[in-house]
Amino acid sequence: MGNIITKVDLGGIAEEVGIEENDVLLSINGKKVNDIIDYKFLSADEEITLEIEKSNGEVWEIEIEKEYGEDLGIEFGGGIMDKAKSCSNKCIFCFIDQLPKGMRESLYFKDDDSRLSFLQGNFVTLTNMKEEDIDRIIQYRISPINISVQTTNPELRVEMLNNRFAGKIFEIMKRLADAGINMNAQIVSVPGINNGDELIRTIKDLYTLYPQVSDVAVVPIGITKFRQGLKQVKTYTKQESIKEIERVKELQDIYMKEIGEPFVRLSDEFYLVAGKEIPNQEFYDDYHQIEDGIGMVRCFRDAIDDTLNDLDETMRGSFSIVTGTLAYPELLEASLKIQNKNPNIKLDVYAIINNYFGSTITIAGLLTGTDIIDQMKGVINSKYLIMSNNMFRKGYELADSSEQIMLDDTKIKDIEAALDVKVIVVDYTGEDLIEKINEYRENS
């Protein structure tokens, strides 16, 4: 049963009224609670009545008065109180379909659940939504929803997702927009398929739903070496990246004049592959799309510049940093700034080639411990190895969400044992890199 209470916050409302772990939530205000969305909506009122089944079988009826929206202080197993809805698509760009065999089982599960979009920011395709699901989003005013669009061309979307129901995306989004539901859109761009004119069409269509569709993130397809039996696709070349940047910029300039923001933003990978300068900080609007790889480089550069004066110039230390081949020049530049500020610091940066998934995967977030250990054994001459936190998985798909583990199940302790180093995990934004270097000084 998904309504089993697995955690009760100390000092919270639930604890005060006698709710305990392993109690079962039966209803709120006489209405059955089917999942976390029902719970969030039904428990928001100032006056609510809970029906709780205790571990001894007794059923308690508890009346509660509280502030509107105030949390009761309870958590449920599985987060959403239900099994996550799996994806019914066979997308040509799906990364999960490109995973090798033998990885942990949870990595092969394709979620496409609007509840996880609301709760955890996951992007969903909306292809498995029934009329009642849409009605509930509208009734409960669930916002924002992160939507994986790819294209608003109905025929092309059916082809890209290999799902005959996929062509209704714009129709559904318009219905949600008309109801005042806020949405964020993502487009995985595949050269020769949904880029170029198709990409421009999709952006223009989505702009008609502004401000309910508040922004659009465009990210390039990632291709591993495990695409046997899948549709042949290609990654962006330098010239294709340049052309995409230029075409999208024409729209961005128009939207900047109309609404004061670009509306659509390309991920950093486009600029790095193209050899183009990354836009300025103002362009990224507080970096709210950074989880899509949008503005990550600019954020990192600014974080280093903003904290460089915090570096202790009296300290000594020797550190190594590992990153993907795409971000290597950025990390190298940052290391030179740090060492110029304090020449007593030795900071080596290493680009890890992704042999596990294939060299076409260049981002740090998809590195594995296997490659890091194989390529760094006998190479590192420092006591400390600095790694970005986006190399580690955490969250609902792990049994123990507190444990940092890499995609290939490598743990920090495995890397430390294999390389005889102390691993220092820093935020991928770079905001605490200087702080960590100061902390792990060798002397004052």
Automatic annotation (TrEMBL):
SUPFAM superfamilies (alphabetical): PDZ domain-like, Radical SAM enzymes
Pfam families given in the database record: DUF512 (PF04459), PDZ_6 (PF17820), Radical_SAM_2 (PF19238)
Signal peptide (UniProt feature, chain positions): none
Membrane-spanning ranges: none
PDZ domain sequence ranges: 1-56
Protein name: Radical SAM enzyme (TIGR03279 family)
Organism: Clostridium beijerinckii
